[in-house]
Known about the structure:
14% strand; alpha/beta; 17 helices; D-Maltodextrin-Binding Protein, domain 2; four-stranded mixed β-sheet; five-stranded mixed β-sheet
Amino acid sequence: MTTRTTSRAAVITAAGLLLTACGSSDGGSGQAGPPSFEGRGPITYVAGKDTTGTVQPMLDRWNAAHPKEKVTFIQLPTDADAQRQQMIQNAETKSDAYTVLSLDVVWTSEFAAHRWIDRLPDKRFPLGKMLKPVVETARYRGGLYAVPASSDGGMLYYRTDLLKKAGVAAPPRTWDEMTAACAEVRKLPEAKGMSCYAGQFQKYEGLTVNFAEAVNSAGGTVADAAGKPDVDTPEARKGLDFLVRSFRDGTIPKKAITYQEEDGRQAFQSGKVLFLRNWPYVYSLAQKSGVKGKFAVAPLPGLNGPGSSSLGGHNMAVSTTAKNKATALDFIEFMTNEKNTRTLLEDASVAPPYAALYDDRQLIGQYPYLPVLKESIVRAVPRPRVVPYGDVTAAVQQEAYAALNGDKNSAQALRDLQKALSKAVAR
């Protein structure tokens, strides 16, 4: 719920994987189809560190109503890669310490293929009320292996006060418009020392997201509809060139090479950057900062028009080695119901999976970014939803980081990335 590293819709590759018992509850006994969910009692909920302060109050409500089935919150690091590694370690050791897992949307295929999570009964959850791209992130080979708890779409945060004072009438739709707006704002005395743009560029999952968004926003793709890597193209190069050039000419500050989500948020709130690419959770926090009333959001800019976000968010799944799975299933129903996801929207700007909430006039009045966020999610382009996702994202991070640091030019980085991705999905 708290890690916004994620991205859009889904490219599924079946490279070399023929599974005969997807999601059997015994971790591989050959039983096909959804497992039985039995056992009641205490469980654990495992997720990234809750930086919003909204998760524990929800767990407290559950625990008060279910004193014999209490949930203990296990908080993992904020870094998505570290979360994934700890969850995999728990699965590989067949530990029952983790019950319900909060998975980044791009991990579903990997965890389902390895039978680290159980296949879930579709009819238990109101999937028809949720945004279709969001629901698809929870499926693998026709089965439901998780339930959407939140979605996420990248948005462009910008300083309305400074753009207005500089005579810029509207937020930028293209990268060139963004740099031109920055040039005008930088002429203002109050913008002295301000950088133009920031995102997430440290060597972690956030870099995969930002790289994919740049490539997609320039008309390229990381992988085609069949899951085949297709990143060594002129379009992909234009996207990566934008990031490389922006670091070189100062559009993106040099120190942003270390930025994760929170670093960028703090830079924006303290007046260090004019434009920020980040997730919707930033909105509620920025409203409590010195930029309250001085910012708004817009779709991400692209090469020739509005760009494409990566589809983020988190899904809730049941560990195959867990105990008390009947309780786990009830808990997932509780956490992912429309009422609780609305609460997370209202308290922490967490994007809900339910379509109706984005069209609610009362909510739009309170959270004017909802139409922009819905557009971001519906138009989102997925990171490759492949089984060896760890290898894929590691390769993207390696080559993109090398290009941003100037160790390789864009063309060489993309050639090397194409080779690495082809090797990864062929295993």
